Structure formats: structure tokens, C-alpha cells
User: Which sequence fits this backbone?
């Protein structure tokens, strides 16, 4: 069951795993936050540097740096809570036409806090936020070779 909170600390079940982790300190109630959602596995609070009003961070209570190290249940709950928040943003915020989800996994990907977190960002036409990579069109042979390499790493033989 999800409990929507007001301005109470998120520390009821948080275990401070890493003293220097700002998110662990928020969860433990040592730093202030503007909480949005509080469940057994997942918490959500507003970003203090929002890209747009309502920009929410969704993260596991447990300190874990990499998304790939989350348990299947944490992945499920992170996605479901992100979806709930996106729905609320679309229904409850004038001008929220769409939502961008962003999760950087590692410093090279742009992860700025070493605690897995999903950004849920309300968007509107003309808000000035871009989301286009400067990629180049690849030929099918190159794409097929990369897909084959990824399937091998996944341990699957085909897509069918």
C-alpha cells in the first residue's frame, strides 16, 4: 500500500547505508525534502533543481548505486511508482502535456548522485528542454551485428 505523505521525514524504514549519500540522508530524515510518495521499497520527492515544476525523483529506499543491481521487485516498484507520478502530473498539473523519464546509470551516463533514481519530468511544448541525441543513421548490417552482440550478452539466441 502506498502512503502519500506531506512534509514528514521519510525515515520510518530507511537505513542509512552511506553517510555521504544525500538521498540516504533525505530518506533517513537527516536532510529536508518535499515528499511525494512513501512506500516500503520506494520513495519519491521533488528535485531541488527542477527542470520544470513537479520534477520528481523516484528511488529505492535501499542504497544502491546502479540500476542493474536493483532487485526485480525494486525495478517493478520503481517503474510503477514512476508511472503513478506521471499520471498524477498529467491529470493534476495545467500545461503538463507529456512526461520525460530519465535514469542515468553511472557517472559516464550523467548520474550525479550515486544512488539509483528515476527523474519524472512534466513537459510541455516549448519548455526549452531538449531530448534529441546527436546520433547518426546506421546501416542495417551494423545494427544487426550490434543486436547479435547484445542477444549473446543476454543469453538469447533469437528474437522470435
Assistant:
Amino acid at each position: 500500500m502506498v502512503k502519500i505523505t506531506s512534509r514528514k521525514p521519510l525515515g520510518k524504514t530507511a537505513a542509512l547505508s552511506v553517510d555521504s549519500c544525500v538521498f540516504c540522508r533525505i530518506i533517513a530524515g537527516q536532510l529536508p525534502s518535499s515528499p511525494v510518495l512513501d512506500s516500503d521499497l520506494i520513495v519519491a520527492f521533488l528535485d531541488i533543481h527542477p527542470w520544470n515544476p513537479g520534477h520528481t525523483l523516484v528511488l529505492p529506499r535501499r542504497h544502491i548505486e546502479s540500476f542493474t543491481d536493483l532487485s526485480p521487485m525494486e525495478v517493478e516498484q520503481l517503474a510503477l511508482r514512476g508511472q503513478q507520478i506521471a499520471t498524477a502530473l498529467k491529470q493534476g498539473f495545467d500545461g503538463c502535456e507529456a512526461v520525460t523519464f530519465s535514469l542515468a546509470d553511472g557517472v559516464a551516463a550523467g548520474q550525479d548522485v550515486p544512488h539509483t533514481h528515476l527523474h519524472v519530468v512534466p513537459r510541455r511544448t516549448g519548455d526549452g528542454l531538449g531530448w534529441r541525441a546527436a546520433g547518426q543513421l546506421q546501416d542495417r548490417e551494423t545494427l544487426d551485428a550490434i543486436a547479435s552482440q547484445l542477444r549473446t550478452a543476454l543469453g538469447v539466441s533469437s528474437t522470435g
